[in-house]
Amino acid sequence: MLGQTAASIAAAVRSRKRSAVEVASETLTRAHQLDGKVGAYLTITDELALAQARHVDERIASGEILPLAGVPLAVKDNMCLAGTRTTCGSRILEQWTAPYTATAVQRALDAGAVAVGKTNCDEFAMGSSCENSALGVTRNPWDLARVPGGSSGGSVAAVAADIATLGLGSDTGGSIREPAAFCGVVGFKPTYGRVSRYGLVAFASSLDQIGPIAKTVNDASLLYAAIGGKDPLDATSVERPLEALPSRWREDLHGIRVGIVREFPLDVLEPELRTVYEAAYADLERLGAELVDVSLPTADYGVATYYLIAPAECSSNLARFDGVRYGLRVDEPNVGSMYEATRAAGFGPEVKRRILIGTHALSSGYYDAYYVRAQKARTLIARDFARAFESCDVIACPAASCVAFRFNAKSDPYSMYLMDYYTIPMSLAGLPSLSLPCGYVASDGAALPVGLELTTPLFTETRLLDVARAYERATFHAERRSPALTASEAAVSA
Ligand code: GLN
Asked: How far is CA 211 from the centre of its chain?
């Protein structure tokens, strides 16, 4: 099981060389041994996982063909899984049990996956390091003194530490891609509307998208194929059928024009990081791609635009946590003070900051100046991408401006917001975008992964995955394992 891909585990379980129950037991044992160090999980769902695994074995025995047969899955704790806690990393939902299962999770289970547990995240998915979780610390398996990235840091760390083979994350402005880059795994955000948001606790509804986290592009595509597609329970999920995944993946990148963004020059990065990206671009070219210069003149407004739209939507979405319907209630003599006391005690500082910014941006007199202007900027950013894609097939750029940093290294909110500089524009434009390992830099004795971000036009996931896989196959960066994990494994067995 250790180090194996979802594809190989599913093949072994389908052919009954291994049972899903064996795979689940092994993964649960390892999760209990290692997770004290990594902190990927908020809840490990032992009994449920074993029950699901038994069910998978029965389905296989009855002749069903399950693409994800027995594959251990980590689910970010902002997605509902019936009968388990769904905390969103927040005190306000710490004791809240989901009464139903999110569509994306259910589809993964229907395809044979086995949910190992619910993973830590920044509170309500607001953050880029997992440090905003009120319920636990998640560490980067490559260097336990560093953050895993966020907000889907738990799912990403679980896959990187091999205490899950696949992960589900959510990405609003970069929360799958940035942590994937920090932990050396593949993180894929499909086109907005491709994957149902039903059962995902809403943060910013016009941006939120669920997507796969995996060790390889092929594994990510298997999970995507399972979870994607129209869901009558989410009106924003699109009717458009999923394109079939390539029956034969491309071997090289001949005929592919890769856009290199003029406004994202590499010389602003630390020299070591710059060297990795230069080598990655050169590898794309070596594989036959033609590198073309493209321009996204308004991308630089992405962060400012996002930090009006996302808080505005969150201020409205989070109004439902009022002490009446879900989770925490702090009793007070009257309803007004009960709301106040509940929200004051239940939400952490970053969530409160976002609610304040969003409420202000939507208030009368400021709405046009802030919210409407941000929407206009969003349209311009989407147009820039559409224009760029007239001269290229895929855009390549850094997934993050640095490697995983140490805990408490970003003390002001703005420097944390800038962590999503390279991922937010794609989110605002709704585009499919993916981060995959493209190299490593040495930092204080640790090798830390670097992520390359690839982005394609709306609804062209197949092209994106195909190009990413060709790059992955030719470069082998994904095959490296985290040394911190090996050290911690040794410590566990000692
Ligand atoms: N880091 C960004 C934020 O805090 C993006 C989060 C996300 O994609 N969920 O809003």
From this structure: 6
The answer to the question of residue 379 being in a domain is no
- Which amino acid would we find at residue 147? V
CA distance 151 to 129: 6
Give yes or no: 175 in active site: yes
**Catalytic residue check, 427:** no
- Local confidence band at 133 (pLDDT 50, 70, 90 cut-offs): very high
Q: How many Å lie between the centroid of ligand 1 and the Cα of residue 124?
A: 9
Q: Let me know if residue 281 belongs to a domain.
A: no
Q: How many domains does the chain have?
A: 1
pLDDT tens profile 250-295: 999 999 999 999 999 999 999 999 999 999 999 999 999 999 999 9
What pLDDT digit, counting tens, does each position of 75-98 carry? 999 999 999 999 999 999 999 999
Catalytic residue (one of 128, 129, 133, 151): 151
493 is known as an active-site residue: no
Query: Strand pairing of 394-398 and 446-455?
Result: antiparallel
Residue 28 belongs to domain with CATH number: 3.90.1300.10
* Peptide bond connecting 128 to the previous residue in cis, omega within 30 degrees of 0: no
- Residue 203 within a domain: yes
Cα–ligand 1 centroid distance for 161 (angstroms): 23
- Structural domain boundaries enclosing 239: 6-255+459-493
276 in a structural domain: no
